[in-house]
Every structure is written in C-alpha cells, then in structure tokens.
Write a structure and sequence with these properties.
Chains A, B: Belongs to the transcriptional regulatory Rex family. 2 copies of one chain form a homodimer. Chain A has 8 helices and 9 strands. Chain A is an alpha/beta fold. In chain A, 40% of the residues lie in helices and 17% in strands. Chain A binds a DNA duplex through helix 1 and helix 3.
Chain lengths: 223, 223
Amino acid sequence: MVGTLAPRRDIPSATVSRLPVYLRALHEFATRDVTRVSSEELAAQAGVRPTQLRKDLSHLGSHGVRGVGYDVGRLTAELTNALGLNRSWPVAVVGMGNLGRALAAYSGFATEGFHVEALFDHDPSVIGDLVGRHRIASMGELTDVVARLGIAIGVIATPANSAQDVADALVGAGVRAILNFAPVALALPEGVACRSVDLATELHVLAFLRQPERVGADVGRGQ
Amino acid sequence: MVGTLAPRRDIPSATVSRLPVYLRALHEFATRDVTRVSSEELAAQAGVRPTQLRKDLSHLGSHGVRGVGYDVGRLTAELTNALGLNRSWPVAVVGMGNLGRALAAYSGFATEGFHVEALFDHDPSVIGDLVGRHRIASMGELTDVVARLGIAIGVIATPANSAQDVADALVGAGVRAILNFAPVALALPEGVACRSVDLATELHVLAFLRQPERVGADVGRGQ
DNA sequence: CGCACTTTGTGCATTTCTTCACAAACCCCT
DNA sequence: AGGGGTTTGTGAAGAAATGCACAAAGTGCG
C-alpha cells in the first residue's frame, strides 16, 4: 500500500476488504430463500469467525436482532449501501492482451453495477477490433472517451513497463480508482484509490508456503 | 484467511507477501545493470518504506553492507532461495473459461520456474481442445495426470459452484497449494496452502473508496 | 591511521487487527 | 406477564504489523 490513507469514516481497512465477502455470502443465502442468518452461519459461509463478522458489522452501525440473527434482505441492503453499490460504475479496461480480453468478458465484472464500457490498447493492429460489445479504442482517445462515458474505474492489464504511463493517462482523464494487474508499484497522486492484483506474487507466496521445510501454513488472504 | 496457520519458521506472513515484490524490484535493477542498491532505492521501486524493507529482510537473516547497501545479485539469490524458487513448480489450471484460458497463456506464470503443465475442464465440448501447447483434459483424468506430472500447484478458474469440488479433487490427487479465482471460501484440510484472488471483491473495495462521502483513501494491498 | 560520512540492523513505542468474554436485548413458551 | 434460552454488540486483552530512532559497522578521504 503506497497511496494515501485514512478512510474518512472510521471503518478499518481490514474490515472494508471483508465487506464484499459478506455481501456475497448473503446472496448465497438469499438464493436459497433463507431470510434470517446467525453470525455463525454467515461467518461460516464467508470463511471467517463469527466474532470477526460481528465486529466488522458493528463498524457499520448495522443492527441484527439479538437472540435471532440478521435479516438477509436488510443486511444485504445495508452492505450494498455502505459499499456504494447502489449506483452504476462504468469501467474501462486498458490492455487487450489475454488477460485484458478475459477481464473484459469476465462475468464477475458484470455484477453489482460494474459495467465495462470502454476498451483501450496501444497496438494499432488491434484497434477497432470488437471484444464483446465494444470496439478497442486507441490510447489517444482515452481522455475523451473516459470523460464522455464518465468512467469511474480503470483496469490496467498492460505489461509492467507501460502501466505507469497508463495510470497517468487515466488519472489525467479524471479516473480516481484503479485496479492494477501489472506487476509494478504505481505512483499515484493522493486521492486516487488503487488495488493491485499480482498473479506472479501469489504463486511465489504459494511456493514459499509449500517448501518442505515449512509445515502447513496459510498466509494472508487465503480465503 | 481461514485455513491453517503458523509459518514454521518465524517469518511474519505480511513479510512473506512482500518478498516477491522485492524480488521483482531487484530484477528491475539487474536489467539496468545496477549491482548495488540502498534500502531506500529498493524500497522506492517496490513501493514500500525503506524501514519496512530492512525489517522484512532482517527476518531472512539477510545481510547487506552498512554504509553501502545490498548487492543485487546476492540479495536476489537469497530471496529466490527463501521463496523456494530455485526449483520447478508444475502448475495445473482447472476451468477453461475466459479467465482460465488467459491464465494458461499468461506470461506472468511462465517466470521463475512456474510452468503450466496441465489443463482441465468439466465441459465435454472443449475437452481435447488445444490451449497453448496443452490439450484440455477431462476432470476424470485429473488424479492420474496430477500424479504423473507431479503437479504442485492447482489454479482454480471455475465458477463458484464447482470450486469446492475441484479443490477436493486437487487435494485428493495430492496437490497441496491452490490459487483460487472462484469467489468462494474454500474449505481445505490443514496443511494445504491457499491464496484467493477475487476480482469482484477488488472492484467492491474500490467502489467503497470512491464514494463521495469518503475522501481519498487507500485500503489494503494497494500496491 | 583515524575521522567523517553513509547506510544497515534492531529494540522499542505505536498503531492496527483479532480474539475473548460477557452484558444487553430480544424471542418464545407457559 | 415473567423467565429461560439465544444471539448480538462491545469493552478490554492479546497479537501482529508498522514506524521511529539510534547504535553498530562499514567505506573512503585526508
């Protein structure tokens, strides 16, 4: 973590990272037509301990009912609202290699108001190609397109060496939330949110954990 | 994190998650023919603070030279060794949708001894198809193939509802390290290492951070 | 050869995160 | 209406991670 810090309201960042997991667990119960869950059931589904779930929810001022549990619908609404998922989030993907194309088509991105609305690439030979319902635009069009479509989140799926330039372009165009798949630490101005996902790093950590010397271990956000 | 715990040797898990980042930063310097770096330079490249870098390296018993810095080659070797990257890690990818195919072809996977050696899918209509240099095998072949090729790491890129079955199959076949892209908390026996990457969760966190009420914030593994 | 300068390694303080333990709150049954 | 049985919400304890400040250890110049 390099950017800025200090969530304005006092929700710990560790808690924020888990809220989406709780939301998904709730959806799971909803599809089974369960209307009430205990912290124990919900925590089991989410892969955390009940006590942590309750503490996390307490930061939202969220209220279950003692002796009963949580109303699935109500808690879903509260979490959805807390996460800001009751609006639309136009997403742009930059970098149309294997990963970028997969992300552009990934159904996980289509949930909860996230919509891929624009695709960009540097390579002239792919500009104009259709991926899903969208045409790949050139980097030169980025500023205009981002402004016109009100892109809120930029996904960087380029090689490492162009990631910083892309980030600068996105920020310059007004994007203030970036999901970065390139294996570099981006330098970003204060006020720009960034999450990085690094596949090679994940494999490296697994390799460490699986070394014969070290016994069964489970580091980090295993679940 | 739900699985087991307690890295046998006392390297904090937060440190372990950063070691691959340092290794990559070192590679960057090496390609520029730099042979010595200070903790300040290396930390800047890695996106952390110098003091944290030094503290992390101290857990390895790694030694730089006071007044000088670190020898790029030597530190690279030490980190490579500590992470267990001086051997080959055969990887299998299960689930040949968009994401699985991208992962199978992803060059980031090809670094440092990680080699995709087997591909699996449930869908009969894609079994036998070639992706890269490999044929997609059926789930029924999983146990045999994993054993024969000595697969060390299983990557799950299936929908959420089949992820647990796939995990069980992998573990049953002897795989004890899993990289999970399905949005579920896997239940795994003690001694199986697991890292989960959840794209939807990352977007949700970004949405939270970008809500108007909360000012610039940067949660979690932003870099 | 010694002194000034640089940069590491680390004990300690601080902050953040997790877990425990229990009182408060609510339902339901009689 | 009251009491037993649950399950939440939370203060306080404990653990982990981070950041500070400085001593230790090296280089190189005079």
